[in-house]
Amino acid sequence: MSFPSFLILYCAGVVTGTLGALLGIGGGLFLVPFLVLAFNLPMHQAIATSIVAVIATSSAGATMNLERRTVNIRLGMVLEIASVIGAIAGGLTASQLSASVLTKLFSVVLLIVAALMIRKLRRQGEQEHIFTDGVLAATFHDEATGATIAYSVRRVPALMAVSFVAGNLSGLLGVGGGFFKVPAMTIFGGVPMKAATATSNFMIGVTAAASAFIYFSHGHLNPFIASIAVLGVLSGSFLGVKLNRRIHSSAIVWIFTAVLVAASIQLYLK
Predict the structure, then answer these.
(1) pLDDT band (50, 70, 90) for residue 201
(2) Is the per-residue pLDDT at 139 higher than 80?
(3) Averaged over 104-132, what is the pLDDT?
(4) Are the CB atoms for 222 and 47 separated by under 8 Å?
(5) What's the CA gap between 8 and 172, in Å, rounded?
(6) 153 pLDDT band (50/70/90 cuts)?
(7) Average per-residue pLDDT in the chain?
(8) Of 13, 2, 22, which Cα lies nearest the Cα of 259?
(9) Using 50, 70 and 90 to split pLDDT, how confident is the model at 4?
(10) 43 with 102: CB under 8 angstroms?
(11) Is 150 helix (H, G, I), strand (E, B) or coil?
(12) Which of the residues 2, 10, 28, 59 has an alpha carbon 20 to 30 A from that of 20?
């Protein structure tokens, strides 16, 4: 690999790590399309590289979010049980599917999630609805508004079902599953956006690790490309967490939706 290619891949890792940590989705949503479109990497290799990068994003971001106490640890541990089971199933299934099927599936799922997020914003406006009549209550300090937010979680069984699907898609598509978990936590569970992204970032590394060994055993992982991407992702992850502290939740939702639509269109055209 030439030095310009090395630099481009590293910078792409920084960008995907920043957005992944900011939105709680690990960065796989951005790294997989980039590797496929810019480097012509086979889909299965792109997914394997992304899974390793997701683990790095989660490790870096979760540490900072735990210090801020934004992570709902109890909720994360409950949902991760279902996610890991789904991730193992997804990793096994992926080896039986063609790259074109995986690409189309990825594209369709992104559009569905983006539509759900837009619907939520239109229904409740820019102000988040906070619920206190659920379970797994938690609090965190929002540095953007200066307020301490207390909330609880609703519909936990439904969230576990969604987490299983998210874990399955994580194993299939090489993403952290956060692109599904974050909307589910905010739309169905009533979790504030910043708490949802932080909790998702806490979970995605474990989910990705559950399917990583399956891709490795099938020879899909390119260690050289993965190591460069991870270096960039780690750098970007710290920046993403810091940005998450300073911007409003509604802005995070709009950024989340925009990148989903962009990635979906690119992959569909590919």
Answers:
(1) confident
(2) yes
(3) 71
(4) no
(5) 26
(6) very high
(7) 79
(8) 22
(9) confident
(10) yes
(11) strand
(12) 2
User: How do residues 36-61 score in pLDDT, each as one tens digit?
Assistant: 878 888 877 888 888 888 787 777 77
Token representation of residue 171? 């194993």
Q: Which residue has the tokens 């998702």?
A: 200
pTM here? 0.73
The rounded distance, in Å, linking the Cα atoms of 179 and 77 is 18
Residue 75: pLDDT band by 50, 70, 90 thresholds? very high
pLDDT of residue 98: 67
DSSP β-bridge partners for residue 153: 135
* Contacts for 194 with CB less than 8 Å, ≥ 6 apart: 70, 140, 142, 244, 249, 252
Residue 217: burial class (beta carbons within 10 Å; 0-12, 13-18, 19+): exposed
- Both structure tokens of 103: 């690409």
Alpha helices in 218-247, H assignment, sequence order: 223-246
Q: Compute CA 246 distance to the chain's CA centroid, rounded to the nearest angstrom.
A: 20
Neighbour count for residue 95 (Cβ, 10 Å) = 12
Nearest C-alpha neighbor of 181 from the set 109, 94, 248, 261: 109
Separation between Cα atoms, residue 165 and residue 109, nearest integer Å: 11
Q: What are the structure tokens assigned to 121, written together?
A: 């914003």
DSSP-derived letter for residue 146 is T
- H helices present in 126-177, as ranges: 156-173
Given this model, what pLDDT does residue 175 score?
62
- Buried/exposed code over 230-268 (b: 16+ C-beta within 10 A; e: otherwise): bbbbbbbbbbbbebbbeeebeebbeebbebbbebbebbe
**Residue 125 above 60 pLDDT?**
no
The sign one gets for the Cα dihedral 4, 6, 11, 15 is positive
* Neighbouring-strand partners of residue 149: 140
